[in-house]
Amino acid sequence: HPFDTLKVRLQTQPNPPKYNGAMDCLRITLKEEGPAGLYKGVTSPLMGIGICNAVMFAANGTFRRMLQGGDETKTLSILEIGTAGSMAGGVMAFVNCPVELLKVKLQTQYGPSTSATIVKTVIKGEAGAGAVKPYTGVLDAGIRTFRQQGMKGLYRGMDITLLRDIPSYFSYFVTYEGSKRILAHFNHHGNVSELSTPELLLAGGVAGFGAWIPCYPQDVIKSRMQSNLKYKNTLECFRSLQMEAAGGNWKVWFKGFGPTMARAFPANAATFFFYELTMKFMRGE
């Protein structure tokens, strides 16, 4: 989560930027807010990550069976695996969007204590055009967002979430299955069931990199949309970033990329490893 907090803060910082990079963001956050600042918004993914992963893997399994046409012995092509993954990503986005929105809202609250600090952010429908009371936690953020903006508020950025997750999960599963098949080809005569724990961890970690490569700019737009209500829609947010990039700051599309990659390998290695263990257990192996 600390890596994710650094990513979101780097993505959503104003222009000119507050932070010079990930290490500067870490230093300032620790100085101004202490270690707790790195864990703001952690409750939302803790509550939602299990559901998100369950929906994603269940949907992926369902779409794979559809592509197999009822023949579970059929080996899907890499393209078919990617297609199933992209459709699963589209399904998961409907669960993922509000979870990430609440997380981003809390991560972009600055100050040593959310219960004592006034956040200098204008939030439509709350306290007019001045300082507003900060969120005290994920439930407070969810309730207040729903009261002020309804379900539309909780699904702010849904369109860009879909545009991020569909290509991301195509690449995610293609990279994972492709890595497994390559490792099996060289080490196990093509038998993926014989892959060792380190090989599965390697494939999962590489998949984490693969998931972010086709979608990182979309994630920047999503974070900006969900943290700042000045944007009327995703297109306006995109144009704002495009103008910033055209002004010479092309790196705006990749802010926070370093912390994201640092987190991607271990997080996804663990995710796929436990997924494989669960599937083996369910098959009675």
Topology summary:
Layout: H1 2-12, H2 22-33, H3 43-68, H4 78-107, H5 138-154, H6 158-187, H7 197-212, H8 216-227, H9 234-246, H10 257-282
Index terms:
68% helix; mainly alpha; Mitochondrial carrier fold; 10 helices
Radius of gyration equals 20 Å
Integer average pLDDT? 86
Distance separating the two termini: 33 Å
Q: How many separate structural domains? A: 1
CATH topology: Mitochondrial carrier fold
Structure in words:
By secondary structure, the protein is mostly helical. It has a single domain (2-282), classed as Mitochondrial carrier fold (Alpha/alpha barrel), CATH 1.50.40.10. The chain contains ten helices and no strands. It has helices at 2-12, 22-33, 43-68, 78-107, 138-154, 158-187, 197-212, 216-227, 234-246, 257-282. Helix 4 (78-107) packs across helix 6, helix 6 (158-187) runs antiparallel to helix 7 and helix 6 runs antiparallel to helix 8. The protein is globular and about 60 Å long. Residues 113-131 have low confidence and may be disordered.
